[in-house]
From TrEMBL, chain A:
This is ABC transporter permease subunit. Keywords: Cell membrane, Membrane, Transmembrane, Transmembrane helix, Transport. Residues 50-254, 321-507 form the ABC transmembrane type-1 domain. Gene3D superfamilies: MetI-like (1.10.3720.10). It is found in: Cell membrane. The lineage of its organism: Bacteria, Pseudomonadati, Pseudomonadota, Alphaproteobacteria, Rhodobacterales.
From TrEMBL, chain B:
It comes from Paracoccus maritimus. Keywords: Periplasm, Signal, Transport. It is found in: Periplasm. This is Thiamine ABC transporter substrate-binding protein. InterPro entries: SBP, ThiB-like. Pfam families: SBP_bac_1.
Length: 514, 332
């Protein structure tokens, strides 16, 4: 009896979570529109923003995905001391708080940055980061790590037996590419492109700081403007709808292109393929070094600037840091629970709408979401009491799509490879979760949890809408900047970055060791 | 397991977030204020202790995006006082009908403009200005015209008028100086604009990092560097064409459940006791305090001869056309 109830519950969990997500995201949008008593039309500047948003997101996504291939391949087929640490480190930019990342990029690529000093020294023209090129550069910086990680997982998901078979058949690197790597990329790349495209669609601060002016206005900025400048909630809701429409269109497109690869089961040998010798060793090393330089230099630049001042940060910063860590951990827990439920349901082959619902948060404007929740809940609860729980919940939801991208392929593989065996053994409910699902999915779960924790740690977005007297660390960073304390702010940025990174590392490490 | 974890974490969060349960039986005055105001580096803590010293109440700041929030909350708002609104958005706030008259005598304020508004009460003021570092920019433009005609490698950072109140002030400043010629002025200024940031903080950070030669800020900004950092190199470029006036305002909410306390707070704002905390906590000028009582650093600052200011109706009417001009200039 209990087993049946449990089975029933596990069967309904995915659709329930998905329906809840859909209701939340569309419901908050409806609440905003309702408060405004209808949707408003868009002006020519808004449509320009829509066009720029789609263009920059598509280009950023394509560049991130293409550049990630050689890096992921090099990491997949080479073994060297410190490889594991490097893989983790290369993930850093994706979880960097936006404000910190922009500081780092400017320190390297800015007018006074190292690159331009070198160019000037060599008598070459400057590289100007401000403009659409800066927006693309920043988006590739943020999303190359995600792309590398997802593609690397694709490589690792090819059973080692296939590579050994290829080797024993005397496959040249070209043949390996044709029979193993390209089918895998065909399956993985559209999802990678889609994920980055969606991240870049809602980009806000990056475009605004590095865009050089209003020609680089994004939809999310237009939403912010509708709230702050025009107090036009109807327009905010319309723009929110446009974002969701773009999201769905991109998802349909990516689904059409993606073809699942079928490699079958393997024995989980973790050592992966052995890379070809010769000149390819050099190109692989170069790919890894260039990626490391591009991704880690800005982080180093920020660290060098801020590290010495950390001990002298005022105590309130540490209190805020503790509060942020606790909130990030709860967010991560929530995100993992939702993510696992959704991924298992998707793997069972339940309709595409569950996956779509799981991806919706990536495109939902945090501003619309936060404002909608504010409108819906304020009659029932004190808004001050709401601020932190709502921030935690929204952060958990916002992290879902990234977790899902990592978890869905693994959950599908699990279902394909072990599902029938487990069914035939009548392994269900908690036993199945404990002995099959969790151990097999530990790695992507650790990754997903780490992402959720780190993203929640660095998020400023929602909390500023929900006024609170309990500031988080990112809010403290802004307060420091807002009161001229730029040197303290740079120390606070390093602290924020270090904590985000530590949280990610702990989860990710936990997942690998489990 | 997950549930246990979540409940443990929730408990920890409550513990980390709980504020000391002091002053439980005292009446609470809820003050909605901008983010920076209530942080320990803003004027908030001084205002809180200053008022609680005599009000026998508990002043609680609630920070965030105050105007959008109170417009959404409407008459159900918990706010008793709104603190930190800006002069150029009062038309919208006033139209909501949520605010009650302040009941103060505003005839002898120390403002460069006449103040006759009976609802919104300024507690500080300043003027927009471009700040530079005299070790990096040896020949700063001596007028707005010189700035417009400076070589394009003079780089400035400004704030987006759609997202930031100082960015909006710049639109009105240019409009005030150039009137119908504002589009041409923007066309000349645009190539010198290194980038446009969401808020003042990001711009100012880029300036202090040496990315830009000048930053859109306030005439009073150098005072912070002088008083807190002993840094005499940051200066405001003073333009004979005039500088745009900005004040931060307080107002009491009509539907407050603490009308006496709210009025008491409004009565306190223009007293020297309150006004003296403004210059070095808010890095701006007091709204009602004779100049000889200002801190020396503020008295020493060079002051513009001319102050530009639009009434709220003018500002509201100019906002959209000026924004369109600005957008066009930057979209070429």
């Amino acid at each position: 009896m209990a087993a049946r109830v449990l089975a029933l519950r596990s069967g309904l969990g995915g659709p329930a979570v998905a329906a809840g997500l859909g209701a939340l995201i569309l419901g908050t949008l409806a609440a905003v529109a309702w408060q405004a008593q209808g949707l408003s039309g868009l002006g020519p500047w808004d449509w320009r923003a829509v066009r720029f948003t789609v263009w920059q997101a598509a280009l950023s996504a394509a560049l991130s995905a293409v550049l990630a291939i050689p890096v992921a391949r090099a990491l997949a087929r080479r073994r060297f001391a410190g490889r594991g640490a490097l893989v983790t480190l290369l993930g850093a930019p994706f979880i960097l708080p936006v404000i910190v990342a922009i500081m780092g990029l400017i320190a390297v690529f800015g007018r006074n940055g190292a690159i331009n000093e070198a160019l000037r020294g060599a008598g070459l023209p400057e590289f100007i980061i401000y403009g659409w090129q800066g927006v693309i550069l920043a988006h590739v910086f943020f999303n190359l790590p995600l792309s590398v990680r997802l593609i690397l997982q694709g490589w690792q998901a090819i059973p080692a037996e296939r590579f050994r078979l290829a080797e024993s058949l005397g496959f040249a690197p070209r043949d390996v590419a044709r029979h193993l790597e390209r089918p895998m990329l065909r399956a993985v790349l559209p999802g990678v492109w889609l994920a980055v495209f969606l991240v870049c669609l809602t980009s806000f601060a990056v475009a605004l700081t590095l865009g050089g002016g209003p020609s680089a206005t994004t939809v999310e900025l237009a939403i912010y403007q509708a709230f702050r400048f025009d107090f036009d909630l109807g327009k905010a809701a319309t723009l929110g709808l446009v974002q969701i429409g773009l999201c769905l269109a991109a998802m349909v497109l990516a689904r059409r292109i993606s073809i699942p690869a079928a490699f079958g089961t393997g024995l989980d040998q973790t050592q992966g393929p052995r890379g070809p010798r010769g000149w390819r060793v050099g190109t692989d090393a170069l790919a890894i070094m260039l990626a490391a330089l591009f991704l880690l230099w800005p982080i180093m630049a920020v660290t060098v600037q801020g590290l010495p001042r950390i001990p002298s940060l005022p105590p309130e910063v540490w209190t805020a840091a503790l509060r942020s860590v606790v909130m990030a951990l709860i967010s991560a827990g929530l995100a993992l629970a939702m993510c696992l439920t959704l991924a298992l349901a998707i793997a069972r082959g339940r309709a595409a709408w569950i996956e779509a619902a799981g991806m919706l948060p990536i495109i939902a404007s945090p501003l619309v979401l936060g404002t909608g929740l504010f409108i819906l809940l304020r009659g029932w609860f004190s808004t001050d009491a709401l601020a932190l729980p709502v921030t935690v919940a929204i952060n958990a939801i916002m992290a879902l799509p990234f977790g899902l991208r990592a978890l869905i392929p693994a959950a599908q593989a699990l279902r394909e490879d072990y599902g029938r065996l487990a069914d035939s053994l009548d392994m269900r409910g908690l036993a199945r979760l404990r002995h099959l699902t969790l151990p097999r999915l530990a790695r992507p779960l650790g990754f997903a949890g780490g992402l959720a924790a780190a993203l929640a740690m660095g998020d400023l977005g929602v909390i500023t809408l929900f006024a609170t007297d309990q500031p988080t660390l990112p809010l403290k960073l802004y307060q420091l900047m807002g009161s001229y304390r730029m040197t303290d702010a740079s120390a606070c940025a390093v602290l924020l970055m270090a904590i985000s990174f530590a949280l990610f590392w702990l989860f990710d490490r936990g997942g690998r060791l489990a | 397991m997950t549930k246990t974890l979540i409940s443990v974490a929730l408990l920890a969060a409550t513990a980390a977030g709980a504020s000391p349960a002091a002053a439980q039986d005292k009446p609470v005055l809820t003050v909605y204020a901008g983010d920076y105001i209530a942080s320990e580096w803003g004027p908030g803590p001084k205002i809180e202790t200053g008022f609680e010293a005599f009000c026998d109440c508990d002043l609680q700041f609630v920070t965030g995006d105050i105007l959008p929030r109170i417009l959404m909350e409407g008459e159900n708002t918990d706010a008793d006082i709104v603190f930190g609104l800006n002069t150029d958005v009062t038309a919208r706030a006033r139209a909501s009908g949520l605010f009650a008259p302040h009941g103060q005598d505003t005839t002898d304020m120390t403002l460069p403009v006449e103040w006759s508004d009976d609802v919104f009460l300024p507690y500080n003021w300043g003027e927009t200005a471009f700040i530079y570092d005299d070790t990096r920019l040896e020949n700063p433009p001596a007028s707005f015209d010189e700035l417009l005609n400076a070589p394009d490698d003079l780089k400035i950072v400004i704030q987006d008028p759609r997202a930031s109140i100082s960015g909006l002030a710049l639109l009105l400043w240019v409009k005030g100086v150039y009137g119908d010629q504002a589009p041409e002025a923007w066309e000349k200024l645009a190539p010198k604009v290194l980038t446009v940031t969401k808020g003042w903080s990001e711009s100012y950070g880029m300036f202090t990092d040496g990315e830009a030669d000048m930053v859109l800020s306030y005439t009073t900004s150098p005072a912070y560097h002088i008083a807190a950092e002993d840094d005499l190199t940051k200066k405001a470029a003073i333009f004979p064409e005039g500088h745009y006036f900005m004040a931060e305002l307080a107002a009491q909410v009509k539907g407050t459940d603490q009308p006496e306390l709210a009025q008491q707070f409004m009565d306190w704002i223009l007293t020297p006791d309150f006004q003296k905390t403004i210059p070095l906590a808010n890095w701006s000028l007091p709204a009602k305090l004779p100049e000889d009582e200002w801190p020396q650093v503020m008295r020493n600052l060079p002051r513009p001869e001319k102050t530009l200011f639009y009434t709220e109706e003018e500002a509201e009417a100019l906002r959209q056309p000026a924004l369109d001009e600005w957008l066009r200039a930057f979209s070429r």
